[in-house]
Amino acid sequence: MSMSLLxxxxxxxxxxxxxxxxSGFEVFFIRTILGTNGAIRVSDRFxxxxxxxxxxxxxxxxxxxxxxxxxxxxxxxxxxxxxxxxALREFPEVSGISEIIEGTAILDSGSRKHAVQIHxxxxxxxxxxxxxxxxxxxxSIDSLDADRSGVLLGSRIADRLRLSQGDRxxxxxxxxxxxxxxxxxxxxxxSQIDKSRIYLDLSTARSxxxxxxxxxxxxxxxxxxxxxxxxxAQMQETLGYRVVGWQxxxxxxxxxxxxxxxSSAITVSSILLLSGLGMFNVFAIMVIEKNRDIAxxxxxxxxxxxxxxxxxxxxxxxxxxxxILGSAAGCLATxxxxxxxxxxxxIFSTDSFVVNWELSHYLWAIAIATVFVGxxxxxxxxxxxxxxxxxxxRESL
Length: 397
Hints:
Layout: H1 2-37, E1 40-46, E2 53-58, E3 61-66, E4 74-75, H2 81-89, E5 94-108, E6 113-121, H3 123-126, H4 132-135, E7 136-139, H5 141-146, E8 150-154, H6 155-161, E9 168-172, E10 177-186, H7 191-194, E11 197-201, H8 202-209, E12 217-222, H9 228-239, E13 241-245, H10 246-249, H11 251-289, H12 291-299, H13 304-338, E14 341-345, E15 349-352, H14 359-385, H15 389-396
Parallel strand pairs: 6-11, 8-10
Antiparallel strand pairs: 1-4, 1-12, 1-13, 2-3, 5-6, 5-9, 5-12, 7-10, 8-11, 9-10, 14-15
Helix pairs in contact: 1-11, 1-13, 1-14, 11-14, 12-15, 13-14
């Protein structure tokens, strides 16, 4: 019985720890991509919107569902950004709007050159839809806002070209070259962004990419990012532009995290299953060895339900002890793991294990343990309740 108790304790603790880790990295990844690329992106005008979006009513609520867009035709960029901005502000869920000009260029430090992706923007607007202000490792937002010739570089660009705040660089664009000053360096942790993206003032970017009118896209933040898919569908039908929520944009990575979370849950649940099997064996042997004692209890007035309750109460006590000790061990282990140093750069940036504190992890562990232990206790208890006292006493005489 002690081994079964230990199994329940370790099973619950391991379940909580693995779920805290996998969901922690997922939540941190979502926070990173929301803080970098925003919850919703508006780009590419549809030439024909007929039949692409439909409204469905279900239980009195309304939602929007995408249909196939195989034959849809697109016009690159946002043609009338001012009108689109006004329209976006009409959505009550929108909390920030940033107009962005995209392009490609070559950054020349004098000793080295590096291909970069230009993001021209109004910095005060952009910090409302991103975590750029918190991603800066050199410089400040104010320095870029005050200097139209300033530029923010990704950390890997700065390392490759050996640049730091205050250095001068030449940006070689498609229509002209410009001398710029490094206003700061940012690090998102997303390697593809940190090694290729730079941020410029919107007017400076227009001059370099040769696009005096229009925009490449709008980055939009909303009050509840979980509703991005539904709101994006509404915006797409209203605006006539391609609108993509972060769930659709990052679907591949979200599926990976979901698979990891499910895989770890199934693997760790096997510990609880083994604990349940161990308890079943203990109770089954106990019923066989205590046949005569059970028969005596029945003969002095114990009902089948009373006999079953004896075994179920024993299983319940072991389960309760396992839940309390396992939850405490899982909480302490999760806290300890969160303090372990771990440098990760690739899809996000962190210097320690990321954990997610959620009550649901404990509830799921308790539910799984309850099912396994409940079945392991109920089967022997049911068998004990069926013992006929007269037959057992007659055979023992």
